[in-house]
Amino acid sequence: LAAKCLAGRRVLLTAGPTFEAIDPVRGITNLSSGRMGYAIARAARQAGAEVTLVSGPVALAAPLGVERIMVRSALDMHGVVMARAAASDIFIGVAAVADYRVANAAEHKLKKDHGGVPAIELVENPDILAEVAAMPGAPFCVGFAAESRNLEEYAQAKRQKKKIPLIAGNLIQDGFGGDDNRLVLFDDHGSHPLAPASKDVLARQLIEHIARLTGNL
Ligand code: PMT
User: What pTM value is reported for the model?
Assistant: First the structure.
């Protein structure tokens, strides 16, 4: 990692899944482990940045020297990120945020014998990354796209829809869980496939790419 290429920069990032409650003990979530986002938080810290990591429920320890804020739902994550985004130079959305939450979450545990099969109604969650990117004086915004096919097409479409300068694409079978990944970076200059590697190695390459695009390297 180019030594201290983000010295003094403030990096805000999200990692892990979100958990959308159905009742006090049940919910909708996904298999993100948080490893990719935590590796990027460590790499940004090693590059000299001041790092705030907004993390969904994961079983990982807070990286050394990083401010970590634990959240549960997409709405919680949205609130914490929006309160801090204006004071950040770089925002990286690594979290697998639930697109929908349960509109009719129950205050008490759902009981099996009461009124048949429960119906779960969904409502759309705010798009945290798109909202940050649309702020006046927005930080440099980086997204992630996990796809099961058509990686380039879908990742580019997300980059354009969310109006962000850089998105890192990965295939679900490569990226979710596990210590290794394969990333393709898409920016205004085209696509940059990175060799398959550990999430730690890829995180450092991503941080260097961000440092170059933001004129810090
Ligand atoms: O945690 P790991 O097990 O290491 O796995 C890492 C990962 C595969 C989860 C990660 O590398 C990854 O790809 N994260 C993004 C997953 C995804 O597909 O996100 P998305 O397509 O739903 O969203 C695209 C982008 O918008 C992401 O940057 C996401 O953080 C952001 N987003 C999405 C929805 C929403 N409501 N708010 C957001 O900010």
Answer: 0.98
